[in-house]
């Protein structure tokens, strides 16, 4: 029984640390750092003359429905026109995307007739970039007018090799539960990213909006499922930082429903497992101790060990209760069962179109972790393909 009890407390610690403990520890470290070194000072915004040249790259596959809206958003960006290029890289698009883009003289169109996947498209576009920096964004996301200036400001710190903007998720209609669950997750994730950046470096950039120094880009395998994460983490592996700035943000609508959101989560989970293997050198605490600490705490545990630990925790807890190990185990099992029942209720209510944020939050948490197991299967079947499997947005 002692062995089971030890395993139980190890599992409980891992789950708690992954989702709550790391955030608490990060907050405490940041507070201590500010007490010793003071709060970080804000770098002045560069003048128009000081701003670097920048390309905005948009990788697309069959995005005819959003071309007009995206180009309207792009034209509204506040950046000197003589220092700014717009590049669309269309990967095997067979709708009217290229035809519509031909109406915009400022667009550099890079087209590949063969659909090889987003990573291959991104690398194809990078070979054509002639500017000091390149910012990546998705065709279906809209970025704020001052985003590129804010990104340029972050690059004035020469330790920075990548800048990650903030992802914001909106619902087209009030009460869209998939969007609300996704939005809640990203608000928490954004807080952790901000603290990670202040401690040392954000652990990976999200493809909705990030920018890099193209001279630092390492060759990402074409079958990478998380091209944005791999490209940005390769830069960290070379000794540079990822700066996070919520002042540059990308707004996109949440998935049309939870089934479409499941496609995204499954692919992200598969890509996370793939990335852990490819970036396994970064797990070594003797290479870059702080990076290893942040990477394992923020990414690796979520994408690998913790979902398995959650299952083990429930099973071990039930066995300990059956063995009458003590009232504390009875209470914790009751809390676990209540939580999973709340998640089930959240799922059933959402399927019937009813709204309960508390129950849905429990469901979304379980949903994310279940998709890690689905991601394992997806990775086995799609490890040699980086092609898009787009989730429909609301």
From TrEMBL:
Membrane-spanning parts: 6-30, 300-321, 327-349, 361-379
GO molecular function terms attached to this record: glycosyltransferase activity
InterPro entries: Glyco_trans_2-like (IPR001173), Nucleotide-diphossugar_trans (IPR029044)
Key word Glycosyltransferase present: yes
A Pfam family that the UniProt record links to this protein: Glycos_transf_2
Annotated family: Belongs to the glycosyltransferase 2 family.
Protein name as annotated: Glycosyltransferase
Organism: uncultured bacterium r_02
Organism taxonomic ancestry: Bacteria, environmental samples
């Amino acid at each position: 029984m002692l062995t089971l009890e030890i395993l139980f407390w190890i599992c409980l610690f891992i789950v708690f640390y992954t989702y709550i403990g790391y955030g608490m520890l990060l907050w405490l470290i940041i507070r201590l750092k500010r007490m010793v070194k003071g709060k970080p000072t804000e770098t002045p915004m560069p003048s128009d003359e000081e701003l670097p040249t920048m390309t905005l790259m948009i990788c697309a596959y069959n995005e005819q429905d959003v071309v007009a809206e995206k180009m309207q958003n792009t034209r509204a960006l506040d950046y000197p026109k003589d220092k700014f290029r717009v590049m669309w890289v269309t990967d095997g698009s067979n709708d009217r995307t290229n035809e519509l883009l031909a109406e915009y003289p400022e667009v550099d169109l890079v087209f590949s007739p063969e659909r090889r996947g987003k990573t291959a498209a991104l690398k194809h576009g990078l070979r054509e970039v002639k500017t000091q920096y390149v910012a990546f964004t998705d065709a279906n996301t809209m970025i704020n007018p001052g985003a590129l200036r804010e990104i340029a400001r972050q690059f004035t710190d020469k330790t920075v090799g990548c800048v990650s903007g903030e992802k914001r998720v909106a619902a087209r209609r009030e009460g869209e539960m998939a969007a609300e669950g996704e939005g809640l997750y990203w608000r928490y994730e954004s807080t952790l990213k901000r603290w990670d950046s202040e401690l040392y470096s954000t652990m990976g950039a999200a493809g909705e909006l990030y920018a890099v120094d193209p001279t630092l880009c390492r060759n990402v395998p074409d079958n990478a499922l998380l091209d944005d994460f791999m490209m940005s983490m390769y830069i960290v592996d070379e000794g540079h930082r990822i700066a996070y700035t919520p002042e540059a943000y990308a707004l996109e609508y949440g998935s049309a429903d939870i089934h479409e959101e499941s496609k995204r989560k499954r692919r992200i989970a598969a890509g996370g497992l793939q990335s852990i293997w490819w970036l396994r050198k970064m797990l070594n605490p003797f290479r870059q101790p702080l990076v290893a600490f942040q990477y394992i705490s923020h990414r690796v545990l979520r994408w690998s060990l913790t979902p398995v630990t959650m299952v083990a925790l429930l099973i071990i807890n039930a066995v300990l209760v059956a063995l009458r190990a003590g009232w504390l185990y009875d209470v914790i099992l009751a809390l676990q069962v209540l939580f999973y029942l709340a998640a089930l209720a959240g799922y059933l209510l959402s399927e019937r179109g009813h709204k309960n944020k508390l129950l849905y939050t429990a469901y979304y948490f379980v949903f994310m972790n279940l998709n890690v197991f689905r991601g394992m299967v997806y990775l086995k079947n799609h490890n040699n393909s980086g092609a898009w499997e787009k989730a429909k947005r609301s």
